[in-house]
Amino acid sequence: MTERFLILLNPRAGRRRKGRLERFLAALRQTGASVELRMTEHAGHATALTYQALCSGKYGCIVAAGGDGTVAEVARGFVLAGTHPPTRKVRLGIWPLGTANVYARELHVPFTPQANARLLISGQRVNVWPGLIQYCQETGSWKAPPYSPLKQTEIFLQMVGAGFDAHCVHNVSTVLKARWGALAYLISASSSWKQFSFRPFGVVCDGQSYRATSAIVTKGGLYGGPFRLVTGQTPQSRKFTVLLLQGERRDILRLVFSLLRGDGCPAGVEKILAEEIVFPQPGVPLQSDGDSRNFTPCRITNTPSALSVAAPEARPRRRRDAKPHLQQG
Q: Where is the region Disordered (predicted)?
């Protein structure tokens, strides 16, 4: 039986890279697959379309054609639909058309049309654990599953930033982002350099309290595109790597230069492995997968079940730069 593919296209990304999209669709159709293309019309539309497609039971693979934000929206549709038949055998595919495409790089998804089409047809998949941001209500309780009230939670795939990088993402110009891509973030960072206060805030990792002026909670090793932030961390793990920055502007500069050199995190950045991270202090800006989110307080955990993503099957690498949190006895 011919497998059916649903391609969910972010039209902004598609307009910028129309030729790449057409070559990808042609390559996929040449395999004999049944391919249906749908355009998203507004923020959150990919989530709704994914949920409807999964409930219909018509498709074997739903492909996010866009950037990291589009992939995250499609992943959210999978989480909403749950793991019950007929959804649990469907996989999420990625055709990278975004600015940074961090998640596609993380999972070694091919960027060429023919190679990507071959991957999708092959049925290869890996099980990953998306992250879940749960915002705190005014009563102090946590907003938790079920996921039907969409405004209560956020799903992310790669990482969450709290502090300076989130402040930059909150202030990035959508016009500049559409025109200049990743350069828009650098422009925002330069303008935010003197605005951000670098005040310490609390971070609780598996029950242990810490302080930081900025924090990154990541499921992968890459940051901002091809730059390796940590080694050994994979989306297939239930653990998050939490990076805590204690300093101010010069420490951010040290981190940036270290990433550009390919050295990863510089000395002085604390690394922790944890499955639950809480930001109890209100008012700290958040970003996830390169898109602006809400503000703390919030709690970060795994989604209730793993997500099947079309990606080359690979053995996870051994962790070498982070150690599990040890309870103080």
A: 284-329
Model pTM above 0.90: no
Whether residue 146 is preceded by a cis peptide bond, meaning omega within 30 degrees of 0, is yes
CA distance 161 to 133: 12
Question: What CATH superfamily classification does 4-124 receive?
Answer: Probable inorganic polyphosphate/atp-NAD kinase; domain 1 (3.40.50.10330)
Concatenating the DSSP letter of every residue in 298-311 gives EEEEE-SS-EEE--
What's the CA gap between 99 and 171, in Å, rounded?
17
Residue 276 near residue 129, CB atoms below 8 Å = no
Domain range summary for the chain, segments of one domain joined by +: 4-124, 131-304+314-324
Question: Which helix (H) or strand (E) element contains residue 141?
Answer: none
Closest CA to 242 of 182, 298, 322: 322
Domain 131-304+314-324 class in CATH: mainly beta
With H, G, I as helix, E, B as strand and everything else as coil, classify residue 279: strand
Q: Is 19 helix (H, G, I), strand (E, B) or coil?
A: helix
- pLDDT values of the chain reduced to their tens digit, one per residue, 329 residues: 678 999 999 988 756 677 888 999 999 999 999 999 999 999 899 999 999 999 999 999 999 999 998 999 999 999 988 866 556 689 999 999 988 899 999 999 999 999 999 999 999 999 999 999 998 765 445 454 433 333 568 899 999 999 988 888 887 656 566 665 555 566 566 566 667 778 999 999 999 999 999 999 999 999 877 888 888 899 999 999 999 988 776 777 777 767 777 776 777 789 999 999 999 999 999 999 888 898 999 999 999 989 999 999 865 444 444 444 444 33
Phi, psi for 50 (deg, rounded to 5)? -65, -45
